[in-house]
Amino acid sequence: MPRVKVPRKSTAIDMTAMCDVASLLLTFFILTATARQPEALTVDTPTSTVKIKLPESNIATITVGHGKVFFGVQGQPIRERVLQKMSERYKVPFSAEDIKRFSLMDNFGVPINQLKQVIDMKGADRNKEGLQPGIPVDSVGGAASQLHEWIYQARIATKEINDESLRISIKGDANEEYPTIKKIIDILQKQKVNKFSLVTSMEGAD
Predict the structure, then answer these.
(1) pTM flag (> 0.70)
(2) Which of 89, 146, 149, 155 gives 166 a disulfide partner, CB atoms 3.0 to 4.6 angstroms apart?
């Protein structure tokens, strides 16, 4: 008997559902992503082979480069509380709007009596090279330096809000002179902070 030929039909796949899912995922990532802000102090960190990732919360970063020191702490509520404490400590007033704008700043590098002018600037103007002279790291008249107070108040604020200890990281330029780094380490050790992280770039493969 002759074989019966079954007519072949083309296979059609409906991609509508897949396109809808892809569009939803793309929209989700765009809306939830945080734009990376330009750094006010750009440094060329030394390289290493260590692959330990820094935590995204309960951490403060001290950036050192070109003889300047910048400070930043993660978490908007912590930043607000730190500025309130520093305002009380140095008797420098900040409005509620100043505190809100400060909570959006990743880091800064000015004496506290110049901080309000920096807060009032737009982000692009604030991060212009050479605008911020750095946070004072030297003690004056026996009083602790401003960097010491920023670190100390950030530690207290983190404990109050998150009930956790603040971790400290130092992000230094590869060509920075040792005395500046030594001053920062001395400030940390005066607060009995003997454990901190050094931020480095990944070393390329040979």
Answers:
(1) yes
(2) 155
